Predict the 3D structure of the following.
Amino acid sequence: MAESKPEGTPAAVWDIGWVMSVLPHRYPLLLVDRVVEMEPGRRVVAIKNVTINEPFFVGHFPGQPVVPGVLLVEGLAQAGGLLVLHDRPDREKKLLLFTSIENARFRRPVVPGDQVRYEVEVLRLRANYCKLQGRVTVDGQLAAEAVIASATVDR
């Protein structure tokens, strides 16, 4: 069952402040703005609002800005990191590092003004390893997908 916010709790319980309390990433590589759904140990849905101010648009591509596909996969990994680390008591001492990226597919460009929705489900979860299936959508359309695996290591 999805983790719900208690009645009277602000809508932004999983806002950028919470995201930054869990993930070590910072600007310009923090790619999650907030979490909108979470089922601990099972799945997470996170959001990233894409603006023309993103630093990678300067060179990718001038006059026709497109979010690099590798950053969409990184965003999936960060959303997965929120799922894996959110209730781990020693999370400030841990990092998640990619061990593999499988079946990465890119279906449509993501551009300034889009709201990216990262949907990540657990395929395998162990103390120091996770394998996750992720989908990136914009307005209900599939933009990218991948299976990612990560190892949890000490910082």
